[in-house]
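Apologies for my clumsy wording, but can you show me some protein sequence, whichever is easiest, together with the matching structure tokens, please?
=====
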Amino acid sequence: MTHHPPHPLTVAVPSVPYGPAGVPVEQADADYYRAAARNIRYAAKHGRYFAGSNLTETVAKLCEAAAEALEA
């Protein structure tokens, strides 16, 4: 498998509506994106990919990158 370096770019990260009360929006979104990455990997671990395994893992990484950017 060929690994490529990440592509740095600026994108608008969608916000999850109706986050928990009292939590700053950016932190709530970061938490949701991290949870999505965990859920994607959990499903993949059990053979439930929504695309090929490489794309599934890439989307999980994208969710983690969005969470990190929101917390920066």
